Amino acid sequence: MSLSPDLVAEAKDLGVNISQASERGLRQAISEARAARWLDENGAALDAYNDYVQKYGLPLADQRLF
Fold this sequence. Notes:
Layout: H1 5-14, H2 18-56
């Protein structure tokens, strides 16, 4: 892994724990990549359901009490 020397120096000056910050950033990047993958894998199904609702309305909408 490589980090910008300027960023490392500034982090040290500010007392930032570089390992924790790196781990937090990596967790965020993983979360975003998982969300993007899920949307890519399931986007067609979501679009199809939205088209269905647009055309026919919500299932059981007539059973709603509000």
